[in-house]
Amino acid sequence: MTEHVLAMNDQELPFHPARAALLVIDMTNDFLAEGAPYECADGRALLPHINRLIGLARAKGLPVVCTTQVHHPGGADLGMVRHLHPLTGSGKALVEGTEGVELHPELDFDPATDEFLVKRRYSAFYGTDLENYLRRRRIDSVIITGVATHSCCEATARDALFRDFAVYFVSDATATVGLSDAGWGSFTAEEVHRFALTDIAHFLGRVGTTDELAALLG
């Protein structure tokens, strides 16, 4: 049996740099700090790339939106998250009012110009005002950066596609963690990241590096 392999040229996918917004997903202490509950060590290495893109976006007058996933201290808004993520479900991570849900101090966030978005689920679109925020500014393209590649970043990209925003997913400004064996083998962070990027390139939007995006932004 011959395996059919999808092929595509993502340069043909629409992306409008002048009508784009930069989304910085969950670059917060609970994901980036050393010893954090959901530490993504590779995420800390993204900071120079993301800060560079933030500077480029500001220079072009493009919106910058930084997100944090937060849950009420009593857990009333957890839903299925309670069962899927025991650390969050037990109140050990992503708790409203704690330092863990604050943006990492090395992230170039400016409250005077940038938007700070609180979300309750993986996607930055789910249950938030993000879509309205972008529509009001005539934005039709989104740039995805942050953590984690295969979960919150991918979920945001998927929801963007479903709302007909063009997606540009930045390969070296996103990162993830390895996955333990759940019955089909374990996977390193690099393997998870590479597969997620490939899947996104086939089904959700364009994938490119910080340098490639910088060239598009001019």
Automatic annotation (TrEMBL):
| Top-rank lineage group of the source organism | Bacteria
Q: Which UniProt keywords apply?
A: Hydrolase
InterPro entries documented for this protein: Isochorismatase-like_dom, Isochorismatase-like_hydrls, Isochorismatase-like_sf
Tell me which residues make up the Isochorismatase-like domain: 20-212
Recorded GO MF terms: hydrolase activity
Query: Which Pfam families does the entry link to?
Result: Isochorismatase
Q: Name the PANTHER family for this protein.
A: ISOCHORISMATASE-LIKE DOMAIN-CONTAINING PROTEIN (PTHR43540:SF6), PEROXYUREIDOACRYLATE/UREIDOACRYLATE AMIDOHYDROLASE-RELATED (PTHR43540)
In Swiss-Prot or TrEMBL terms, this protein is called Cysteine hydrolase
Please tell me the species this chain comes from. Answer: Amycolatopsis acidicola
